[in-house]
Amino acid sequence: MDASAPASASASAPAPASLSGPAVLCLVLLPYALGHYLSCLLRTVNAVLAPQLVGAAALTPGDLGLLTSAYFLAFALAQLPVGVALDRFGPRVVQVPMLLLAAAGTFAFAFGTGFMSLLVARTVMGLGLAGCFMAAVKAIATWIPPARMPSVQGYLIAAGGLGAASSTLPVGLFLQHADWRTLFVLLALCCVALAMLILLVAPAQAAAPKQPFGVAVLAEVFRHPAFRETASLVLVPHTVFFGIQGLWIGRWLTDVGHYSEGDVAWLLSIGMGAVIAGALAVGMVTEWAGRRGAEPLTVAGVGVALFVAVQCGFVLGWQPAHFHYSGMLSVLFALAGTITGIEYAIVARAMPPALTGRAATCLNLLIFLGAFVVQAGFGMIVGLWQPDAAQHYPAAAYQVAFGALVLLQLPGIVRFFRRRRRPLLANPVESPL
């Protein structure tokens, strides 16, 4: 999918230039940003709901990790066909049926009674929400002038951060008055309402000619030096950030920190606030460093090194008795992990314009596949230990699991700093790779 190349609007829809600023806000940005909001909320909500899900279906840590990560697997598998469909038919035609599919999966999850029924429902949910972010990007590229795209995309990312934040303390407060099944029924209704909103108000665009997106195109993206060097440094940390923040940080706070469900929801909400602040800070720091001659990839290298250093705090069992110190570690994980979002911008800047959209789709595929492996694998490692009478797993289980993640990320960091003597070149012919 090439989101950087706007498709032409249909004759029945207003041309992009005819949309005023308020129309762009109400008819384009708001509906699609709400989709990204819902996608991020449902992706991370299990971090707060984990105790209820474990109790309702007698889940082991391995079951919980696999159940939650099924969203990532479905999300990843849908990326390439969704990208092709968005380029061919436009975001409105794609998003409406996919949101209805997401609603069906969310309804099914609300009434699931066992591991397998919840797993299937979670997978359908992930499939239905797989196009939310890229549909928003496609709509922005189609209907918003290029000069305004950076700021508008910033609003889109903030909407996703708000969705993730809504899955923490607000969900915890909701659970004081209703159960988790009621929550998913309401979220399913929100998916239906959003599908109807997009159908009724979002501008349409004409179907574009079919463009090939096969093995040859994927190989072209993967062979590009900018894609390879960026992915070798940031891809694994990105999958760790998505996989751990969406589930296991909450479980670590419960099992190792021994916090109540209310305290966990509060700390996770602070972490999501840190994600929003971190996303804004990464952009400002990258621009500041660029004015001083530093490449974005250099900023990413330093940031990833800090992110791994924070993870070493989990490995070393840094959990002082004071509430704010141990909680600080989970917030630092969220804050430092936002550096991984720079991956898209680096690839888009360094690669030829004709490849940037497809490269973003390929990144999505790899990131969500990796997040599936991280989230499920982390649970399997923790599950090797026996829980106590309160079903809390020991700190050693989490130390080993985090240690495995650190070891996976170290080679990319070492390789990056060894190669810093040779600048990254956007031209693959001139690249030393």
TrEMBL record:
Q: Where does the record place it?
A: Cell membrane
A GO CC annotation recorded here is:
plasma membrane
InterPro entries in the record: MFS (IPR011701), MFS_dom (IPR020846), MFS_Efflux_Transporters (IPR050189), MFS_trans_sf (IPR036259)
What span is annotated as the signal peptide, if there is one?
Answer: none
Q: Does the keyword section mention Methyltransferase?
A: no
Gene Ontology terms, MF aspect: transmembrane transporter activity
Membrane-spanning ranges: 15-34, 66-86, 98-118, 124-144, 156-176, 182-202, 265-285, 297-318, 324-347, 359-385, 397-417
Instruction: Say where the protein is mainly found.
Output: membrane
Q: Which UniProt keywords apply?
A: Cell membrane, Membrane, Transmembrane, Transmembrane helix
- Give any Pfam family that matches: MFS_1
Its name, as the record gives it, is MFS family permease
Q: Whose protein is this, by species?
A: Pseudoduganella umbonata
Give the classification, highest ranks: Bacteria, Pseudomonadati, Pseudomonadota, Betaproteobacteria, Burkholderiales
